Amino acid sequence: MSQVFGTPRRPAYAVTRTDQLGRPISLDRRAPEGNSVLFTGGPGMGKSLELDRAQELARQNGWTAIRVDASPREPLENRFVRAVSEDLGGLRKRHGYFALRKLKKTLRDLTQSSRNQQNGAELRFGVMPVQAVVKKQWDAPGKDGIGSTLNQLADNLGELAAKKRQPVMLMVDNLDVASERDLAALTELSAHLERQGRPVYLVGAGGELAATRLMAASGGMSGIATGVTARFDVRECGPLSADELRPTVTEPLRQAGIPYQPEAVESLLKSANGNPSRLRDLSETALQVARPPYGITADVAKQATAQVNARARVFYQAAWNNCSAAEKDLLAKVAVRGPRGLAMASETQAAGPGKWQEVDAARQGLVARGMLRESPSGQRVSLADPGLEEWVQTRVGQSAAHAGVALPGTPAPAITQPDPRSPAVGAAGNHHRGPNTTTRQVGNTAFTINS
User: How far, in Å, CA of 5 to CA of 10, rounded?
Assistant: First the structure.
């Protein structure tokens, strides 16, 4: 891979995102408004990059930052205990050997407790030497409540940092795969940090429905009211405009001395559709096609887009296979309408009583997985990935007419009378086969978190 554009985690040109009020969302540009921050957005929108920037800010200032990835197979408490244990050397350098005694005792207690979190039973049937064995394991209920281990760690780390008047960041990435138990633990930790009032910050990153899942877990398991979302400083990593993304292509090319045509850059931007990860893939592929120093032309951009879409077909197929029937139907209807998208109000109304809920659930699921993108007004949805849009159009093209959906620009077929010798049109399992349809400023200016 070319290093002209840097790496996904260290881009050559980093965009400083802003919210609807024009304020930077990055923690190295704007301090949190509370003890809990949540970055949300679709796949490839830069949520992990925002955590990277916050982690780098902590490193530059000598602050404590503990970062883990959520997992559906291992509780967050265990991951945090292991992460803190691995960072004991760095903590010792910052705070001294004796200052860590309380923290180390907590880690030993929690490690022992985690080993005792499983109960089990075993049944044997038959007579030796032939026996059937049935085993069952389940989580033992915690004595101290969900999230108590995270609260203990936060308190110990907060006490250490308070002596030096420094903040602590507990960071959790990939919240999309977190269990309901883990989400409840995080909401409890968020409430605990707010009550304590120390400079200890919970920083999480998840998909479009991360805030909704946290709210549901809070009310459903931890007993904390659904006002949990009010405690989180939610910062959205939404699609970027062409003006915001353009310098991420042109500046690295200019610095590398690689010529480019403006129309080629615009073509790449259009295909990226506001997704910085897809734009990076397109730009890197364009460099390979162009074989510098020949430059990036409009034809090179077209070839690069075709190659990226071709490589992604296997992922498009996998995503399609994981969709429910209602989600596939909605994807097809949205795809054949192209960039203008589909008005959801008319779609749910057409579904009728008892069916509109299924359509709306399909919309929510596809938006959560980053396959569909809602308009700012929330009234229309379109496919987030132009490559996926093209793939779905090709897949459903032959059957679009039978679904009552015409591809953009497809003329209406002439109405013909059915052959009386043929099976009745509309009979179960039979379809009338008509004509086929075809298819801001950049930088790492650090701020100081008030302790």
Answer: 9
Q: What is the mean pLDDT of the chain?
A: 82
Q: How far apart are CA 447 and CA 28, in angstroms?
A: 6
Euclidean distance between CA atoms 344 and 363, whole angstroms: 9
Mean pLDDT, residues 233-241 taken together: 94
Q: How far is CA 225 from the centre of its chain?
A: 25
CA distance 23 to 5: 26
| DSSP code, position 30 | S
C-alpha span between 384 and 274 (Å, rounded): 9
Q: Is the pLDDT of residue 136 over 60?
A: no
Would you say the pTM of this structure is higher than 0.70? yes
Q: How far apart are CA 84 and CA 55, in angstroms?
A: 15
**How many CB atoms sit inside 10 A of residue 20's CB?**
8
Residue 448 φ/ψ, nearest 5 degrees: -110, 125
Helix 180-196 × helix 148-163 angle, to 10°: 40
Q: How many CB atoms lie within 10 A of CB 72?
A: 10
State which H helix or E strand residue 65 sits in: strand 64-69
State mean pLDDT over 5-26.
Answer: 92
In angstroms, rounded to a whole number, what is the distance separating the alpha carbons of residues 80 and 152?
A: 11
Tell me the pLDDT band of 110, cut-offs 50, 70 and 90.
Answer: confident
- Rounded CA-CA distance 405/390 in Å is 16
H or E element at residue 416: none
pLDDT at 106 over 90: no
What is the residue whose two structure tokens read 């159009």?
A: 393
Question: Using CA atoms, how far apart are residues 299 and 302, in angstroms rounded to an integer?
Answer: 5
Angstrom distances, CA of residue 412 to CA of 54, 254, 394, 405, 408: 55, 48, 19, 11, 11
The amino acid at 256: A
Place of tokens 């390979």: 288
How far, rounded to the nearest angstrom, does the alpha carbon of residue 431 sit from its chain's CA centroid? Answer: 41
Chain mean position to CA 178 = 12
Q: pLDDT-based confidence at 450, cuts 50/70/90?
A: very low
Query: What pLDDT band is residue 327 in, cutting at 50, 70 and 90?
Result: very high
Q: Work out whether strand 118-127 and strand 64-69 pair parallel, antiparallel, or are unpaired.
A: unpaired
Q: What per-residue confidence (pLDDT) applies to 262? A: 97
Amino acid at 71: S
- pLDDT band for position 420 (50/70/90)? very low
